[in-house]
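Run log // design_07
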């Protein structure tokens, strides 16, 4: 399994320390949540902060755009050195076009679905993306309760991807912890985002080790 800790729950006054902790930990990616106060009712951080994270991070950046018009930021995200650019289906009327733009810029394309958005919305681009991310909370805030319906949605998405021969990774974002994480992996998820489960733990790098061992459970 791939573990992508979300820096949204990091201590922004000690960001360098938290990035170093992730560098030395067993995590796979860094999940960066960009919010614009329009697509979601919260504002997080933007490029100036991400540029510093990118400078010190030693693993791939998994950037999650919770903004309107993500197509305006494709070039800048690529310049940052991001490995994956995740955009919301709900924010992209021309989803196929932005996927092409992301690929042309040299990144892997991820599409993200809100809890109320049907997996049928990605049926026609399932073979064009490297990753499909399901939100298991309503986007905008860390530390929310996992929406149980996601377990069934993961199973249905797994079937859809297998049926159409897509190799896309299934990533889950929101309310992931040891308990929900184990069930998500059993349902067919490949990658898990974890914000508060990691950064609110007494020992974040030990929590990462435990979450990483879930797939062997
Ligand atoms: C929520 C963000 C998440 C958030 C997850 O809108 O997209 O990545 O950081 O936080 P937890 O793991 O605390 O639910
Ligand atoms: Zn996220």
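design_07 sequence
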């Amino acid at each position: 399994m791939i573990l992508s800790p979300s820096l949204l729950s990091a201590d922004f006054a000690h960001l360098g320390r938290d990035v170093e902790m992730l560098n030395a930990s067993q995590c796979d990616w860094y999940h960066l949540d960009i919010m614009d106060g329009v697509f979601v009712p919260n504002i997080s951080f933007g490029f100036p902060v991400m540029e510093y994270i990118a400078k010190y991070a030693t693993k791939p950046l998994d950037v999650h755009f919770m903004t309107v018009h993500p197509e305006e930021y494709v070039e800048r995200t690529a310049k940052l050195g991001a490995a994956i650019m995740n955009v919301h289906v709900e924010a992209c009327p021309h989803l196929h076009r932005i996927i092409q733009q992301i690929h042309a810029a040299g990144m892997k394309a991820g599409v993200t679905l809100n809890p109320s958005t049907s997996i049928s919305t990605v049926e026609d681009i399932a073979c064009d993306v490297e990753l499909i991310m399901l939100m298991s909370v309503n986007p905008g805030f860390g530390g929310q309760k996992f929406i149980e319906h996601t377990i069934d949605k993961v199973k249905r998405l797994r079937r859809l991807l297998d049926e159409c021969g897509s190799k896309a990774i299934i990533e889950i974002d929101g309310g992931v912890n040891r308990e929900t994480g184990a069930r998500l992996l059993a349902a067919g998820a490949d990658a898990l985002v974890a914000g508060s489960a990691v950064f609110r733990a007494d020992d974040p790098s030990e929590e990462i080790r435990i979450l990483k061992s879930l797939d062997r459970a």
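The mean pLDDT is 97.
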